[in-house]
Amino acid sequence: MILLSFDIEEFDMPLEYERKIEFNDQMCISIQGTIAILDLLKKHQIKATFFSTATFAINAPKVMERIVNEGHEVASHSYYHSDFKLEHLLESKLKLEELTGQKIIGFRMPRMHPVDEKEVFKAGYLYNSSINPTFLPGRYNNFNKPRTYFRQDGVMQIPASVTPIVRFPLFWLSFHNLPLFFYKWLLSITLKKDKYLNIYFHPWEFTELKNKDKFNFPSYVSKNSGSNMIIRLDDLFLWAKTKKYNFITFKDFIKII
Description:
By secondary structure, the protein is α/β, with parallel strands linked by helices. 42% of the residues lie in helices and 14% in strands. β6 and β7 form a beta hairpin. It starts with a strand and ends with a helix.
């Protein structure tokens, strides 16, 4: 089983690289990328989970309507992408439920930052996917966390997938930078060991990111973005089908574990 998810949010990442980007541009880029994702999912008849900020959902009603109408799951990615308060756990859940008509049962913290699990439980979530159980300098230091799903403080924790033993992360940056055949091999050995995968991407990856003046991204972020990203994910979907790997939403996954 493959848990495929997308963090849909206002595209504020250039701010991390000392580039100002207006809110309208943030939303336009994220909407453009989300539409490309939905087109791919529809082509391959794959259902996914979309972790959405309330801010994105409020400002992209037609995209959210399409996500719901095409049978995907919506989960919370907090209220804003770059501003977090504990009350946003419940506020984002309620707003997303109002906007989508779905019961929101899952949460993922922006940038996979730590979050108080007791507060996640109190806000009414059943699962949390905010852990990347690996080590990345300046970002994650989670070798002390379980590599696969576990329960904590009443909430099912579903970490992002990393390979067995060495815990090499299989997240979006790996997909951009590794040769595709090697990335597929890593997925295969991890899936064989764990019986499931949890991999995630962002809509802005499906837009062109190589404008250095505009975004100031290092090459490992912008590599294989835009049309190349669409081609690579299309290839991954075709490969998964030949392997008879099934895609499943988080809400369906927690029913069977």
